[in-house]
C-alpha cells in the first residue's frame, strides 16, 4: 500500500518527460489506469448514458401507457361482448319460450280440430244410421201396405159385385195416393 501512495505523492521518482519507461509494478499502475478510464467514462459517458437511460425510460413508460390503453379497450370490448351475450341469451330464452308456447298452441289447435272432426263424423254417422232406419221402415211399411192392399183386394174381389168393386178400388187408389203424398 505504501507503493501506491508513494507513486501518487513522489513526483521526483517519475522519470522526466523526455524518456519513456515501462512501469511493471501492477499495483502501482492499475489503480491509476482504472481511475483515469473510469474518470473518462464518467465524464464523457455521463451524457450518453443519461440519454440512453432517458430514452429507455420513455420507451418503457410509453409501452406501459399503451398497454394500459389497450387494456382499457379490451375491458370495454369484453363488457360489450358480455352485454351482447346477455342480450342473445335473453333472446334465445324468449325464442325457446315462444317456441314452447307455439308448440302448445298448435297441439291445442290440433286437438280442438280433431275433436270437432270426430264430433262431425259421429253426427254424420248418426244421421246416416237414422236415414237408413227411416228408409228401411218406409220400405217395410210399403210392403206391408201392398200386402194388406192385395189381401183386401182379394177379399173384396171374392165378396163384392162389380159396381161395389169399382168404388172400392177408386177409394183405395185415392187412399194410396194420399199416403204416397205423405211419404214423399
UniProtKB/TrEMBL annotation:
GO terms for molecular function: proton transmembrane transporter activity. This is AtpF. GO terms for biological process: proton motive force-driven ATP synthesis. Keywords: ATP synthesis, CF(0), Hydrogen ion transport, Ion transport, Membrane, Plastid, Transmembrane, Transmembrane helix, Transport. It comes from the Eukaryota. The gene is atpF. F(1)F(0) ATP synthase produces ATP from ADP in the presence of a proton or sodium gradient. F-type ATPases consist of two structural domains, F(1) containing the extramembraneous catalytic core and F(0) containing the membrane proton channel, linked together by a central stalk and a peripheral stalk. During catalysis, ATP synthesis in the catalytic domain of F(1) is coupled via a rotary mechanism of the central stalk subunits to proton translocation. One of its GO terms (cellular component) is proton-transporting ATP synthase complex.
Amino acid at each position: 500500500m505504501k507503493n501506491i501512495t508513494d507513486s501518487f505523492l513522489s513526483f521526483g521518482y517519475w522519470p522526466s518527460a523526455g524518456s519513456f519507461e515501462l512501469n511493471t509494478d501492477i499495483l502501482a499502475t492499475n489503480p491509476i489506469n482504472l481511475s483515469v478510464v473510469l474518470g473518462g467514462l464518467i465524464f464523457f459517458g455521463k451524457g450518453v448514458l443519461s440519454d440512453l437511460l432517458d430514452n429507455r425510460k420513455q420507451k418503457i413508460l410509453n409501452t406501459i401507457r399503451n398497454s394500459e390503453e389497450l387494456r382499457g379497450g379490451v375491458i370495454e370490448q369484453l363488457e360489450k361482448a358480455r352485454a351482447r351475450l346477455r342480450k342473445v341469451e335473453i333472446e334465445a330464452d324468449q325464442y325457446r319460450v315462444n317456441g314452447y308456447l307455439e308448440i302448445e298452441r298448435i297441439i291445442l289447435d290440433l286437438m280442438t280440430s280433431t275433436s270437432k272432426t270426430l264430433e262431425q263424423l259421429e253426427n254424420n254417422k248418426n244421421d246416416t244410421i237414422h236415414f237408413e232406419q227411416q228408409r228401411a221402415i218406409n220400405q217395410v211399411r210399403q210392403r206391408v201396405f201392398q200386402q194388406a192392399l192385395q189381401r183386401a183386394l182379394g177379399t173384396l174381389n171374392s165378396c163384392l159385385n162389380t159396381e161395389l168393386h169399382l168404388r172400392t178400388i177408386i177409394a183405395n187408389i185415392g187412399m194410396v195416393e194420399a199416403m204416397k203424398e205423405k211419404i214423399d
